[in-house]
Specification:
Number of strands: 2
Number of domains: 2
Order of helices and strands: EEHHHH
Radius of gyration: 33 Å
Strand content: 5-15%
Strand order of the largest sheet: 1-2
Largest sheet: 2 strands, antiparallel
Helix content: 55-70%
């Protein structure tokens, strides 16, 4: 691979001649390009064979669902005693739904029980 450099004359110095030279990068650059040209298709084929990155994104989504449920629990705890029973009923229902999305049956049932207690105190039928 050859790279050509050219220096053009400056307008204020018309006597300067155009200079150019070539830089030979050698065969190592060609070998690197050939290796890259081979690795890209092989890599894409491997991703296709092994089913892509679904296993990675699925694990990340599970962590997101759990983190969301934990964040909603923290919001529930921040409500404190000044919140009404209907507010606590709604927030506990939201936390229960988040644990259902995270597919944690034990936490879901726990928060459904908490939601039921607050909704009963607020006079909301279940």
């Amino acid at each position: 691979m050859r790279v050509l450099f050219t220096y053009l004359p400056m307008p204020d110095k018309p006597n300067v001649k155009v200079k150019s030279f070539q830089l030979d990068t050698g065969s190592s650059a060609q070998a690197q390009l050939a290796a890259l040209g081979l690795l890209v298709p092989v890599g894409l084929f491997a991703v296709w064979i092994f089913g892509g990155f679904d296993w990675l994104t699925g694990k990340q989504l599970d962590n997101i669902y759990i983190q969301t449920a934990q964040d909603l629990e923290a919001q529930y705890r921040l409500m404190g005693s000044e919140s009404s029973d209907i507010d606590k009923c709604v927030k506990a229902g939201t936390v229960a739904a988040a644990w259902l999305n995270a597919q944690d049956q034990v936490e879901y049932q726990n928060w459904k029980r908490i939601e039921g207690a607050h909704c009963t105190d607020a006079g909301v039928p279940q």
